[in-house]
Amino acid sequence: MHELALVDQMIRILRTKAREHGATRITRVRVVVGGLSCASPWALRFAFEALTRPQRPEAAGPLQADGLLAGAALDIVERPAVARCPRCGQEFPLDEAMAACPRCGSAGKVISGTEVYLESFEAEVPEGPEGTPKDQVEEPKEDPACLRR
Amino acid sequence: MPATVKVVLGKSLREANETWAGRVRDKLRTLGTLAVNLMGSPGCGKTTLLCATLQRLRGLAPAMPLYVVEGDPYTTRDAEAVGAQGVPVVQINTRGGCHLDARMVDEALRHLDLKPRGTLFIENIGNLICPGGFDLGEDLRVALLSAPEGNDKPEKYAAMFRRCDAVVLSKMDLCGPTGFDPGLAREAVRRLNPAAAVFSLSARDGTGMGPWTEWLMDRAAAKRSTADPGGV
Ligand SMILES: Nc1nc2c(ncn2[C@@H]2O[C@H](COP(=O)(O)OP(=O)(O)OP(=O)(O)O)[C@@H](O)[C@H]2O)c(=O)[nH]1
Ligand SMILES: [Mg+2]
Ligand SMILES: [Zn+2]
């Protein structure tokens, strides 16, 4: 059930960022899940819905009470793992069992696919004196894949 | 009328864990202490291997400090087994949680009086999936695969076997009754993860323990050189 921990972290980030951007309601959230991330998209969605949609209003927990995320859509982008051949440089998607380079047969090294990250969100922001708020791109982490080895 | 804006973040959902793992890693680097994360399914023989390994390391390197962090959903049984060897041990109970995370390990290390240039073993929760997704600040990720589990596990649990530094094929004394073929398992691991060291052994009868402990000794020696000379 570690997907619950990942979604909990996601909601904490969303709440902080919503505050920073003056958002009143988050309408759409997009996460990227690598094929080797050990996170199941199905369980992520289940956890997201459990943590953002109270079944009964009186049972709402602190993460749900203000309705910031109530009804937000969750897009899950599944990204297949990719390996690179150390001999010929070919990059290729990893299927489940094999890691051999389709060009020369050498064993590939995993270069991405272990990531789980919050790619973006869409939110309602009241119009201020400066007029219509603009889309924002924060400095994304250099390599959200976080592949240490 | 509120406007809708899009905010692009690219923020890892494991960031909190990564921060804690970094703390653990920094602490152990300064100490020059090797950290080994032992992973594998429930009952694959992690604790038995750990106890046999501690005993051998004691004989080979009597001066090397040894430490253990035990992870289990419930009970302190494994910590008691390790403690009976006279090795300092801290038990973490996740109360149903499916993996250890780096914050738990950081907390456990506060309860150990860590001396420099040692070896720390972390026995993860018995589970071939979830522990693989959480960096604990370790140097070596070791995946166990025991004979009764069958030859096809490297492919079925590829995320675990692809991202480890060594695979231990355990309970090799049971190859006969279970029909486990260590050659096939070795080949499957090699296809998935050619860089991984593969050991076949039986902690029960001691077969194959030599190469495994020598490999650990080499890694511990390499890690010792990172110890901060100012820090005792
Ligand atoms: N025949 C044989 N049995 C073994 C061997 N190693 C462990 N066992 C047995 O396998 C069972 C489980 O061993 P443990 O060492 O407790 O396994 P574990 O992976 O630590 O289990 P959990 O911590 O509960 O996930 C015990 O009954 C051990 O005696 C071995 O090399 N050969
Ligand atoms: Mg155990
Ligand atoms: Zn190639």
What can you see in these coordinates?
- The complex is a heterodimer of chains A (149) and B (232).
- In chain A, strand 1, helix 2 and strand 2 form a beta-alpha-beta unit.
- With 149 residues, chain A is an alpha+beta fold.
- In chain A, strands 2-1-6 form a three-stranded mixed sheet, covered by helices on one side. In chain A, strands 4-3-5 form a three-stranded antiparallel sheet, with no helix packed on it.
- Chain A has a domain of 89 residues: hypothetical protein PF0899 fold (2-Layer Sandwich), CATH 3.30.2320.
- Chain B is α/β, with parallel strands linked by helices.
- Chain B is 38% helix and 22% strand.
- Chain B has nine helices and eight strands.
- Chain B has a seven-stranded parallel sheet, with helices on both faces.
- Chains A and B meet through helix 1, strand 1, strand 6 and strand 7 of A and strand 1, helix 1, helix 6 and helix 8 of B.
- Strand 7 of chain A pairs parallel with strand 1 of chain B.
- The structure holds guanosine-5'-triphosphate, magnesium ion and zinc ion.
- The site of zinc ion has 8 residues of chain A, from loops.
Write a compact overview of the structure shown.
With 149 residues, chain A is of the alpha+beta class. In chain A, 21% of the residues lie in helices and 27% in strands.
